[in-house]
Write the structure tokens for this entry.
Amino acid sequence: MEGKRGRHTLEKAQQLARERALVILRVHEGTITAKQGAHLLGVSRKTYYEWEEKALKAMALALEN
């Protein structure tokens, strides 16, 4: 059985993942630059690009038939 602390931690992790995904999408639509996206996420551009690559691969995999 998952306690309140575990549930809260999971919800926080899910919210963080959604925020990262939204920033990646904003970069891809051209609303912000990768440099700005990295700054918003508090990471280096290198880390941003690593996250972006993982996110796009996961999305492509999820959309396969």
